[in-house]
Amino acid sequence: MKKLNKGFFEEVYRIVSKIPEGSVMTYGMIATMLGNPSAARIVGYAMNSAPLELNLPCHRVVNKEGRMAPGNIFGGEEKQRELLEKEGVIFRDNGCINMELYLFSWNA
DNA sequence: CGAATGACAATCT
DNA sequence: TAGATTGCCATTC
């Protein structure tokens, strides 16, 4: 669980760590960046194995709905919501993020 | 090498 | 609308 230098994972970590505060990224989007638009699961899997030492802003990584995973990951999706809100991300009433507004534009 | 896993996505019921 | 199912692809055992 230490040699996570597996191209794909590494790229995921790199991209995620590049997400500026107040912005969010979707798994499918990251996967597309890596060249595999269908590898969204791999991104999630990478997060699952993501070393906390990297301080990856995984809370800025959300699914297409603008929502976060199951809820038993970081300590509760609600906790994530608070974190993101604190960074300036406004959530909708349904608990989803305004992706159109907060989606991080990687390709300048 | 083969089977299992996974924090998604899209489709179907 | 919400829940369940399948597909996809890389990593792990």
Structural account:
It is a single chain. 40% of the residues lie in helices and 4% in strands. It is mainly alpha-helical and 108 residues long. It has a single domain, classed as Winged helix-like DNA-binding domain superfamily/Winged helix DNA-binding domain (Arc Repressor Mutant, subunit A), CATH 1.10.10.10. The protein has a two-stranded parallel sheet with strand order 1-2. Helix 1 (7-17) crosses helix 3 (40-48) and helix 2 (27-34) packs across helix 3. The model has no long low-confidence stretch (mean pLDDT 86). The structure holds a DNA duplex (13 and 13 nucleotides).
Task: Describe this structure in a few short sentences.
By secondary structure, the protein is mainly alpha-helical.
Would you spell out the secondary-structure blueprint of this structure?
Blueprint: H1 7-17, E1 25-26, H2 27-34, H3 40-48, E2 61-62, H4 77-87, H5 99-102
Parallel strand pairs: 1-2
The structure holds a DNA duplex (13 and 13 nucleotides).
- Please bin the fraction of helical residues: 25-40%
**Which shape, going by the Cα principal axes?**
globular
User: Biggest β-sheet: count, sense, barrel?
Assistant: 2 strands, parallel
In DSSP terms (H or I, runs of 4 or more residues), the helix count works out at 5
Report mean pLDDT, rounded to a whole number: 86
How far from one another are the termini?
Answer: 34 Å
